[in-house]
Design goal:
homodimer; Thiamine-monophosphate kinase (chains A, B); globular; Phosphoribosyl-aminoimidazole Synthetase, Chain A, domain 2; alpha+beta; about 35% helix; about 350 residues; 10 helices
């Protein structure tokens, strides 16, 4: 590494460097099957049981803003994004550890709200909140969640298993979270302007947010798709590759292709857009597709599956086939509604600058 | 909870509240044997294998100061304090997940140093660095480590198992870390004063620190006592209760007594003091015993054991018997070198204000 700041190295450059430095330690744990590079680490507990483990850090002013994130929602989201990583391995979540750094001036009631939200989500997913750590913070809240789940060697879905010809599928609808965030940021601007001008801020203005409710909920209170994992396990479906959509459809599809050594082709017309994303995009003179491709934080599942399983998923109302895996040489492309080919790999930073 | 700030509630009050809020989720994970309240959560993997898991948060300016913490040491310590919690369950560490929030202006080289230290320690403990998360930080470095280990139902040592009559034992020597920290803080003050007065700071002055080297190393580069766990497993010793000394001997002994429903009696004259703690205490006109009782961060093991096992530990050069477990009514006491009885429970905040 050089003396250039991390900001220049970028997130993926940094992760690559860290993976390189950790690599020599991986041989130490005999049972370790996958280290850094997937949604979870994979550890072999026995012949028939695999453990998956993931951890995520949420930093105030980087990942959330208390001006528009109710603490109960924040607690729920902190757990959900980790459970979503467990689900992305086709695994069932079991327990979680939660560490939290708090400004000492924060009211105890705020902590109660946060943990209530977390405990509520834990109840929905059947996850035990089994331990953690508390610390003072010098500036803002930091939440670190580690989630642990279980699956079997037959059911495990890595990012690296996609094969040429596989269908590319997505759950739910995309773009809602990014659209909701755009609305929330506008509201924040209005609020801050009012405060700066010493004008009274009319709380009732928030009533107008009702029409954006669906999208805002996608952003503040996302759900991990453990229901899809239950469906897979019931139906005996094992995706050849899977990831949860946290960076945006474009980036996350490229993660699968990079690890699988394949290309991909998806069709714009098949991408399920969140209904609110459309009218919010119109209002902001934005392209709704951008929210889905580059927005991220939808926490839906993106997976690939052999075509022989088409009948199994065709009947599920919340799974959409959006394309297919192609040879590596063909790249990662999308044909738009006019039939034009767009190279998704050329937009590495996501679609925000598309 | 009330609207009073967390600072008023105190760390232990906060943990109690959080445990209460998380309690309803514990039934969710069938295999969960111990939730919040011990060094690790305990999860039953099979009839014969228990998993233990712990997580710790290190926050810049709260837990460490880069002015005197080399980043390699910091990386090593971040892992060691978690492995120490695993050891305190009489378990062997297996893998760890590491999350880190970094100011974007930090040079990439700094991250390399941090992970080099971590990877080096991981190598010593046989721990795989299996995954993690990276994030930007708005102020200072935050490191969150989760460590996972394994033991058996027969070998597991909780805080709650001490029985009246058991010996109270401690590994290594105590007080080195707190003594080292006192020296480092004085050096920092001198450095800051020089900078504020625009005087050149002579780096060679640090050469004087050589005579404090042992204590400083205790603070900056502590080791988890996995060697003791290996010894226990080889000899078939299972402590009736165990904890690692992170809050100071007084607090940590009280943790064992509270969870076990017992009292304890220790003798000042038997407490093994770090040799550097004595001469540093003299220089600072401090009581060396304070460092051991209230200083904390020694990461030695404090455990209880039935007297029938006395022969097994009497031969170990690094284990000292310092007292015995008594009935609850007798409280947690120490007789000093003059034979006076001191009630340790009256000094809840540790011995800094003793």
């Amino acid at each position: 590494m050089s003396l250039k700041p991390i900001a220049e190295l970028g997130e993926f450059g940094l992760i690559e460097k860290i993976a390189e430095l950790c690599e020599p330690t991986l041989a130490a744990a005999e049972g370790l099957q996958e280290g850094i590079g997937d949604d979870c680490a994979v550890y072999r507990l026995s012949e028939s049981i695999l453990q998956v483990a993931t951890t995520d850090l949420l930093v105030e002013q980087v990942h959330f803003d208390l001006l528009y994130s109710p603490l109960q929602h924040l607690g729920s989201k902190a757990l959900s994004v980790n459970v979503s990583d467990v689900a992305a391995m086709n695994a069932k979540p079991r327990y979680a550890l939660v560490s939290i750094a708090l400004p000492p001036s924060l009211p105890a009631e705020a902590v109660e709200q946060l943990y209530k939200g977390m405990a509520h989500a834990a109840g929905l997913y059947g996850v035990a909140l089994a331990g953690g750590d508390t610390s003072a913070s010098k500036s803002g809240i930091v939440i670190s969640v580690t989630a642990v789940g279980e699956t079997s060697p037959e059911q495990l879905a890595l990012r690296s298993g996609a094969r040429v010809g596989d269908m590319i599928c997505v759950t739910g609808a995309l773009g809602g979270s990014a659209a909701g965030l755009q609305v929330l940021m506008r509201e924040k601007r209005i609020m801050v302007e009012h405060l700066e001008n010493n004008e009274p801020y009319d709380k009732n203005i928030m009533a107008n947010l009702k029409e954006y409710q669906g999208a805002i909920q996608c952003h503040l209170l996302p759900s991990a798709r453990t229901d899809i994992i239950d469906y897979f396990h019931r139906e005996g479906i094992t995706p050849s590759a899977m990831i949860d959509i946290s960076d945006g459809l474009s980036q996350d599809l490229q993660h699968i292709c990079r690890r699988s050594g394949t290309g991909a082709h998806i069709e714009e017309g098949r991408i399920p857009l969140h209904p609110d994303a459309r009218h919010i995009a119109e209002e902001f003179q934005h392209d709704a597709l951008d929210y889905a491709l580059g927005g991220g934080e939808d926490y839906q599942l993106l997976f690939t599956l052999g075509t022989e399983k088409f009948q199994n998923i065709a009947t599920h109302p919340d799974i959409t086939v959006i394309g297919k895996i192609t040879p590596k040489e063909e790249g990662v492309n999308m044909s738009d509604i006019y039939g034009m080919q767009i190279d998704l790999a050329e937009h590495k930073a996501g679609f925000r600058h598309f």
